[in-house]
């Protein structure tokens, strides 16, 4: 596992020069000083962790606003844009319904009173999936969903941040333990 983490770190560090050369040749070249100050394309531990956290948080924003939201949050937090954009892909058509159900249950824990998850069959009697049925189901989730989505997004952001920190530091901690044993 340590070998895999070290390889991943090397690969991420190898991306930085490629991104920089592409940035110098693109229309964004004039913005490079601003982008550099913000660490938006640095593949180091802190910018990567902040970028993943931003992507995990903004991944629960509906539809086409995920990537623009992630770009804004990465610029604000000085996180890596590439890591943030990639992290938003944990939400997709297969994971949206389970994540929204989890957000509903999380919101129901916080809200007073008993909250029940509306059945899919009440929205789509034949059981077929459609965008209209999904929109109606999400509307039926109501206030617990509105409370649970930001809570779940914050939880996912914290987990993403901690995961990157641990992944980045694990090889160093293992080397330190081996060195201490060898003494």
UniProtKB/TrEMBL annotation:
Keyword Transmembrane helix (UniProt): yes
DUF2062 domain: residues covered: 30-171
Transmembrane segments: 47-64, 145-169
Highest taxon above the source species: Bacteria
Record has Membrane as a keyword: yes
Keyword list, A-Z: Membrane, Transmembrane, Transmembrane helix
Listed InterPro entries: DUF2062
PANTHER family referenced in this protein's UniProt entry, alphabetically: SLL0298 PROTEIN (PTHR40547)
Protein name from the UniProt record: DUF2062 domain-containing protein
């Amino acid at each position: 596992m340590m070998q895999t983490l070290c390889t991943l770190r090397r690969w991420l560090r190898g991306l930085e020069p490629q991104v920089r050369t592409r940035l110098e040749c693109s229309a964004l070249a004039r913005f490079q000083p601003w982008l550099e100050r913000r660490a938006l394309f640095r593949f180091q531990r802190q910018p990567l962790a902040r970028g993943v956290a931003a992507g995990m948080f903004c991944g629960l924003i509906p539809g086409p606003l995920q990537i623009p939201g992630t770009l804004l949050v990465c610029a604000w937090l000085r996180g890596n844009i590439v890591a943030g954009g990639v992290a938003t892909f944990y939400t997709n058509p297969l994971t949206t319904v389970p994540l929204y159900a989890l957000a509903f249950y999380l919101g129901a824990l916080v809200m007073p009173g008993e909250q029940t998850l509306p059945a899919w069959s009440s929205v789509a009697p034949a059981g077929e999936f459609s965008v209209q049925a999904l929109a109606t189901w999400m509307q039926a989730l109501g206030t617990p969903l509105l409370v649970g989505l930001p809570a779940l997004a914050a939880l996912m952001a914290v987990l993403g941040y901690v995961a990157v920190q641990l992944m980045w530091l694990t090889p160093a901690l293992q080397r330190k333990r081996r060195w201490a044993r060898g003494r």
